[in-house]
Structure prediction request, 360 residues.
Amino acid sequence: MKAPAALVRGLHSAWRKKGWLSTLLLPLSWIAAAAVARKRSQFEHKPALVHHCRIPVVVVGNIYVGGTGKTPVVIALLRALQSKGWHPGVVSRGYGVKVGDRARTGQGDLDAGQFGDEPALIARTAGVPVSVHPDRTEAARRLRRDFPNVDIIVADDGLQHLALGRDLEILVQDARGIGNGRMLPAGPLREPADRLRYVDVIVTNLVAGQPDPAPVDSPARQVRMRLEPVKAEKLVSGETLNWADWLAEHGKEPASAVAGIGQPARFFAMLRHHGLTLSQTASLDDHYDYAESPFEALATPIVLTTGKDAVKCARFQDSRIWVVHAEPRFSDPGWLDHVHEMLRLIARHKASVVPRRRGD
Prediction:
């Protein structure tokens, strides 16, 4: 059961500093840290517990609980890989979806109720096959069986899912960095802060206009990312305009924005920074199920929402809804080429040393 939004906001506020509440919870964090260390040691000392695929596996994840902006990074990575001739597939938990013993696979225009909002968005946007299951190993095996042309797996989240072997790790954080540096529940971290020293790439997701943070103490390649709106699509008709044309045609009309993502304020800030005045905003819980329409409470003739929300909203047939398609702008665009070169070498090595196994 999800925690109430007010409680979540209160915890995130407390996790910015080492205040009295954080200090009170610190003994529980020590227990959590010990459990994480024990789990990692178990997988390190028993290699048979780890499933290694014959093709490269990239994990895109975070250690800060809640949304940091992984999905835009995943989509950018997928597109870059496709441009280099790869045939990627995605494995994901499928948040909020009851899958059963076997992973669920699909490609194209997928039902968010069957696959989860983020996998459905990734499948529609990047056109790649996806496989969802809480057990990422099961998801990877089923993906390979159902889509044998896949030659690289990108795991959307799963940095802490150690049973799935990985060849490269990309960690996504935002301006909050590591917060107060403490693990749950005294802080926001799923793993100790020094985990950042062992990933390959760190992408820092910043709000438009936000100053660059200090570099992280890590040998990883470090990249800053800012999302920019590139086009708007009318949900009921599919009419699409690039952002400049949309602003020229609709930017003077009263507009509201709705977001059910990890950090809705980032979406609203992006819209304002790129020329839009918002009359109202509605911040919903991450992965909001849209069992009822939140748009009816908004009186404006224009309502904007995210791609992640849009995969669950078509049934409302609300002609006011426009979907904002945003893309990342990286401070170091060459990091994607760097990842491609690393993966090319990894694929060549795997093909030469890893024996073929049935079902892999």
About this structure: The chain has two domains: 7-225+331-352, 227-328.
